[in-house]
Design goal:
The complex is a heterodimer. Chain A is an alpha/beta fold. Chain A contains eleven helices and nine strands. Chain A is globular. The two termini of chain A are 31 Å apart. Chain B is an all-alpha fold. Chain B is 70% helix and 2% strand. In chain B, strand 1 and strand 2 form a beta hairpin. Classes of the chains: A alpha/beta, B mainly alpha. At the A-B interface, helix 4 of A face helix 8, helix 9, helix 12 and helix 18 of B.
Chain lengths: 275, 447
C-alpha cells in the first residue's frame, strides 16, 4: 500500500559488504498472514533501507510481532513473499539475527548467561561439535557489549528482567548478523538496560547493520530510530521518522478501530469454520 | 569378607548372607549375575541421561504413554512369532514389537493433537489407557493359545531383572551405551531445542528432526528398560533421576551426567537386590531407590531444597525485624518515642553487634547506627517517590515503604535519587525528613 520510497544506497558506497548487499536487506511484498484462518496482516509492503534503525509501531493486536515472525518463517504466509538481499530467508539465514520477546522461554532452564550467548554461535559451530574456546570468547565479548560480562556465569533465573533481555540481545550479537529483528526489546526493562540497548543499536548502525525493532514507546521513536513503520493490520505509513511519524498518521494508526478489517477477518474465519 | 554364614537379620533379606550380598555388589557372584547387574546399571545411566532432556523439554507424560503403548506391541509380536513357529519369548522378537508399539503410540498422540482441539495431556491419557487395554486383551489371548509358552511375559509389566539372561543383558547394555553416546553427541542441539525452539528454528536447526531424535532415544531406553523395570515404572527411571539432579545444579552439563549417575546407582541397587531375592520386585526397588535420592535432594539441596528455602525465609524475616528495630531506635534519637524491641529481636541486635540493650534502652553501636541510617534513608526516599510519582497520600506511604526498604539494592536507590532530582527535590547524603508524623503504630515494627 505505501511502500517506503527511500533513496536506495548505491552499490559502490558499500564496497566492503558482499556484492548483493546493494539490494534492500529486507523486502516484504504483499504479505498476508492469518492465525487459525483469521487474517491478522493484510497485504503488507515494506522495504528496509540498508544501515537503518526501523521502529515497527502500532496498537496491541496490530500484528507487529506477527510481521517479524512471518518474516522469519515462524508463521506461514497466506500470501506474498519476503526477500533478504533479493533472496529467500533459507539462503540468507546466517546474515539474519533475532531477539525474541523475553516471555517466550522458561528462564528456570539450567544454563548460564554465557551458555545462552553461545547459542548465537551454534549455527557456525555445526552439528555434533562442542562449543570451543574461540566461540565462547566471542559470546563473552557479546555479553560485554551489553554490559553483562560480569554476569556471564550466573544462572539465567537469577538475572533481572532487563538483564535477561540483554542476554538475549548478546546471543543475537554473538551471531554477528547483518540484519536484526528485535521484538519489543525495551518492554519492561530498567533504565540501565534501556541505555545499553540504545548503545548497541547505534553501534550496529555505525557498523552498517540494519535493525527492525518492534517498539511500544512512542516518545522515544524519534530519538532512537531513523525510519518508522506504522502498522495496524495493514501498513498505515512508513518512511523516515521525520516524514512518516506525523500526528495524522498516528491518529490513523491508533485512533478508531478498523471496524471494516476486523469484520472482514471475522467473516473469513467464520467461512473457514464452515458457518 | 569371608565371614561365617551369619545371615542379615530381618525382612526382606532373611536368608541372604553378608558374603552373598558382598559378592553381588562387587560383581563377583558369577558371570551371569555380574552381566545382568552391569546391563541394568547402564540402563539406569541411559535413563538418567535421556530423561534429563525429556524433563527439560516437558515431555515426561509422553514417556508414560510410550511405555504403556509397548504392551500391545510385545504381545502382538509374541503372537505373530508363535503363529510363525518361532520361539516368541526372546528379546530379539519382543523388543522390535515393543518399539513398534511405542512408535504407534507417539504417532497416535501427535495425530490427536494435530487433528482435534484436544490438548496433549488429554491425548496422552487417552492413548496410554487404550493401548494398555489392548495389550491386556492380547495377553489374555496368549493365555488361551494352545501352544504359546507365555511364561514371563507378565514380567514386562512389573519388571524382573532376575528374568534376564546374560545375552539379554548385553543387548540392553550395548543399546544403553549407544543412547548415552548419541545424547552426548547431540548435547548442544538438544540444549538449544529444549531451551528455545523458535530461536533454534530461526537459526535453521531442524527442530522437528531434533525432537524426533530425542523421542527415538526415549523409545530405545523405554524398550530396553521394559524387562528390567517394567512398563508401569520405566517412566520413573527417566523422570525421577533427572528431577533429582536438577535440585543440585544450575548447569545442564552437570545435570545430565549427575542424572545419569543417580539413575545408574538406582538401577545397580535394584538389580543387586533382585539377584539375591528372585521374587523381589526389581523395578519397584529401582524406582524406590531413585525416589529416595529425589526426596533427599528436595529436602537438602543447597539452594533449591525445601530446608534451604525455609532457612532463607526465616533469615529474611529476622533481617526485616532487625531493620525495623534499628529504624525505630534511629527515629527515637530524632526525638520521637517508640517502644523498645521484643526479646528475640533484642538478642539478634546484640548478636549482630548492632546495639547494646540496657534497661529497655537501645543504644546503637557505630555499625548499627550506619545500618539504621541506610534503612531510614531507603524508607524515606521510597516514601517521597510514592508521594511525588504515584500521588500517594503522605499518611499511606509508610506501610509500603516498610515492605520495600529491605529490598532496595544500591542501583535502585541510585535510580530513586535520579527520579527525585528530576522533580527538583534536594537529595542529600542523609535521610530526608519523614513526610508523616512518627511514632505511629507501624513504627515499633519488630513484628
Amino acid at each position: 500500500m505505501s511502500p517506503l520510497h527511500a533513496p536506495r544506497v548505491r552499490a559502490d558506497s558499500l564496497a566492503s559488504l558482499p556484492e548483493h548487499s546493494a539490494d534492500s536487506p529486507l523486502a516484504v511484498h504483499a504479505m498476508t498472514v492469518a492465525y487459525h484462518r483469521r487474517p491478522v496482516l493484510w497485504d503488507v509492503d515494506f522495504d528496509a533501507r540498508p544501515r537503518s534503525l526501523v521502529a515497527v509501531v502500532g496498537p496491541n493486536g496490530a500484528g507487529k510481532s506477527t510481521l517479524i515472525r512471518a518474516c522469519l518463517g515462524l508463521v506461514p504466509l497466506a500470501a506474498g513473499r519476503v526477500e533478504y538481499w533479493g533472496r529467500s530467508y533459507r539462503q540468507q539465514r546466517r546474515r539474519v539475527g533475532y531477539v525474541p520477546q523475553r516471555e517466550t522461554v522458561d528462564w528456570d532452564f539450567p544454563v548460564s548467561a554465557l551458555d545462552v550467548a553461545c547459542m548465537g554461535r551454534y549455527g557456525m559451530i555445526g552439528w555434533c561439535r562442542p562449543v570451543t574456546r574461540p566461540h565462547r570468547e566471542a559470546a563473552l565479548a557479546a555479553l560485554d557489549r551489553v554490559g553483562m560480562a560480569d554476569y556471564a556465569n550466573r544462572q539465567i533465573s537469577q538475572l533481572s528482567g532487563g538483564q535477561q533481555q540483554r542476554v538475549f540481545l548478546a546471543r543475537a550479537l554473538a551471531q554477528d548478523a547483518e540484519l536484526y529483528f528485535m521484538d519489543e526489546p525495551f518492554a519492561g526493562v530498567d533504565a540501565a538496560t534501556e541505555r545499553a540497548i540504545v548503545e548497541v543499536l547505534r553501534e550496529l548502525k555505525s557498523r552498517g547493520r540494519t535493525v527492525i525493532c518492534v517498539h511500544h514507546d512512542l516518545q522515544t521513536v524519534e530519538e532512537y530510530f531513523d525510519d518508522v513503520l506504522l502498522l495496524n493490520m495493514r501498513v498505515v505509513a512508513c518512511g523516515p521518522v521525520a516524514e512518516a511519524f506525523t500526528a495524522e498518521n498516528l491518529r490513523r494508526t491508533y485512533g478508531g478501530r478498523l471496524t471494516l478489517l476486523d469484520e472482514a477477518s471475522e467473516a473469513v474465519a467464520r467461512a473457514a469454520r464452515g458457518e | 569378607m569371608s565371614v561365617a554364614p551369619s545371615t542379615v537379620e530381618g525382612w526382606p533379606m532373611q536368608g541372604v548372607t553378608f558374603d552373598e550380598l558382598w559378592r553381588t555388589l562387587t560383581l563377583q557372584a558369577g558371570h551371569n549375575a555380574a552381566i545382568v547387574v552391569l546391563g541394568a546399571t547402564l540402563l539406569g545411566v541411559a535413563g538418567g541421561v535421556v530423561g534429563s532432556f525429556i524433563v527439560l523439554r516437558k515431555r515426561a507424560l509422553l514417556g508414560d504413554a510410550l511405555s504403556h503403548a509397548a504392551l500391545p506391541g510385545i504381545a502382538g509380536a509374541f503372537i505373530a512369532a508363535t503363529l510363525l513357529g518361532v520361539q516368541g519369548r526372546s528379546l530379539g522378537v519382543l523388543l522390535p514389537g515393543a518399539a513398534v508399539g511405542c512408535v504407534a503410540g507417539v504417532l497416535a498422540v501427535q495425530a490427536i493433537v494435530r487433528w482435534t482441539r484436544l490438548r496433549d495431556d488429554a491425548a496422552i491419557a487417552a492413548v496410554l489407557s487404550v493401548f494398555f487395554g489392548a495389550g491386556v486383551v492380547l495377553l489374555s489371548v496368549i493365555q488361551s493359545m494352545p501352544t504359546g509358552d507365555q511364561g514371563g511375559l507378565a514380567s514386562f509389566i512389573y519388571g524382573q531383572t532376575a528374568a534376564m539372561n546374560a545375552r539379554d543383558a548385553m543387548l540392553i547394555g550395548v543399546a544403553a551405551l549407544g543412547s548415552i553416546a548419541a545424547a552426548a553427541l547431540l548435547f548442544k542441539e538438544f540444549r538449544l531445542a529444549c531451551f528455545d525452539r523458535e530461536f533454534a528454528a530461526v537459526q535453521g536447526w531442524p527442530v522437528g528432526a531434533i525432537d524426533l531424535a530425542m523421542t527415538a532415544l526415549l523409545v530405545v531406553v523405554t524398550v530396553i528398560g521394559l524387562q528390567a523395570v517394567g512398563l508401569l515404572l520405566i517412566v520413573a527411571l527417566l523422570i525421577v533421576p533427572a528431577a533429582a539432579a536438577r535440585f543440585w545444579t544450575e548447569r545442564l552439563r552437570v545435570m545430565v551426567p549427575l542424572s545419569g549417575a543417580l539413575g545408574g546407582l538406582s538401577a545397580y541397587a535394584g538389580s543387586c537386590i533382585s539377584a539375591l531375592l528372585t521374587n523381589a520386585p526389581a523395578g519397584a526397588i529401582i524406582v524406590l531407590t531413585a525416589g529416595a535420592i529425589f526426596a533427599a535432594g528436595m529436602l537438602f539441596a543447597p539452594s533449591r531444597g525445601v530446608v534451604a528455602a525455609v532457612l532463607r525465609l526465616a533469615s529474611l524475616r529476622v533481617r526485616i525485624a532487625v531493620d525495623h528495630a534499628l529504624r525505630a531506635a534511629h527515629e527515637r534519637a530524632e526525638g520521637t518515642g517508640t517502644p523498645p524491641p521484643g526479646r528475640g529481636i533484642a538478642l539478634a541486635l546484640r548478636v549482630g553487634g548492632l546495639a547494646r540493650i540496657a534497661d529497655d534502652r537501645v543504644e546503637l553501636t557505630p555499625r548499627g547506627e550506619e545500618r539504621a541510617r541506610r534503612v531510614v534513608r531507603a524508607h524515606r526516599l521510597w516514601e517521597q517517590y510514592l508521594i511525588e510519582y504515584a500521588d500517594a497520600a503522605p499518611s499511606h506511604v509508610d506501610v509500603s515503604a516498610d515492605e520495600v526498604e529491605h529490598a532496595l539494592p544500591p542501583a535502585l536507590i541510585a535510580e530513586l535519587e535520579d527520579a527525585l532530582r528530576r522533580r527538583w527535590l534536594r537529595v542529600t547524603k542523609g535521610a530526608p525528613a519523614s513526610p508523616h508524623t512518627l511514632g505511629g503504630e507501624h513504627q515499633g515494627g519488630a513484628t
